[in-house]
């Protein structure tokens, strides 16, 4: 009888321990590690921004007509008109792989001033003031994620006022809106979704143009003025459309 009871107790203990042991020995399920997600900056979309900086315009004056008497271009000298620029830009970019293409229009208020004493008509002082600049350009760039280097080129326009002064008093004057060409380059950095900051340099080839000066409504001379502009700006842009995408 004791042997029967002992065998029954042993079987009961074994049956109680077996499920727990099986549970402890069960294989843990395999879980695949999550795939890493990389953030890629996308330069595509419409953008708008502001810019500010400085510029210098080289202006060389050659007189070729005095009171209706024409003559050869005779150099009166050159001067640099320098000062500040501030304005805005709007454009559109599209990206293909790492290449970025774009179109942009930019307009700036300017305060570029300079003068020199005429080498021909001294003591007359020739003065240049450029008060507005515009650029209409195409862009080609290459992006390293959120860093973009680009070159640009297209049309440029300036508005300038010219004065001839004696003792600080304006004797004769002229003004013009001039069209020319522009090339430039810039480096842009995307620092937040939609936001980027850039530094840019542009050179404007404005060529030579004849300008008729008047004194009390009478034309007294014609000067052929050659003009170029070098401009450096810091730019802040906002691109619409969420420029950060995920790449698995």
TrEMBL record:
It is found in: Cell outer membrane. Residues 35-208 form the Outer membrane protein beta-barrel domain. Keywords: Cell outer membrane, Membrane, Signal. One of its GO terms (cellular component) is cell outer membrane. Pfam families: OMP_b-brl (PF13505). It comes from the Bacteria. Residues 1-22 form the signal peptide. Belongs to the Omp25/RopB family. This is Outer membrane immunogenic protein. It comes from Bradyrhizobium huanghuaihaiense.
């Amino acid at each position: 009888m004791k042997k029967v009871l002992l065998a029954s107790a042993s079987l009961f203990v074994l049956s109680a321990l077996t499920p727990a042991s099986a549970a402890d020995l069960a294989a843990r399920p395999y879980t695949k590690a999550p795939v890493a997600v990389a953030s890629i900056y996308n330069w595509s979309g419409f953008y708008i921004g502001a810019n500010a900086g400085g510029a210098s315009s080289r202006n060389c004056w050659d007189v070729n007509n005095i009171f209706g008497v024409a003559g050869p271009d005779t150099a009166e000298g050159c001067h640099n008109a320098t000062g500040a620029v501030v304005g805005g830009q709007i454009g559109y970019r599209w990206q293909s792989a790492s290449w970025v293409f774009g179109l942009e229009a930019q307009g700036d208020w300017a305060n570029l001033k300079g003068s020199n004493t005429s080498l021909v008509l001294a003591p007359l002082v020739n003065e240049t003031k450029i008060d507005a600049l515009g650029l209409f350009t195409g862009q080609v760039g290459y992006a390293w994620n959120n860093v973009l280097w680009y070159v640009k080129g297209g049309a440029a326009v300036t508005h300038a006022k010219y004065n001839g002064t004696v003792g600080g008093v304006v004797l004769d004057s002229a003004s013009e809106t001039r069209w020319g060409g522009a090339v430039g380059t810039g480096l842009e950095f995307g620092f937040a979704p939609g936001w980027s900051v850039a530094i840019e340099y542009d050179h404007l080839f404005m060529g030579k143009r004849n300008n008729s000066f008047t004194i009390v409504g009478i034309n007294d001379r014609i000067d052929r003025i050659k003009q170029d502009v070098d401009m450096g700006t810091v730019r802040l842009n906002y691109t619409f459309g969420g420029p950060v995408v995920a790449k698995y």
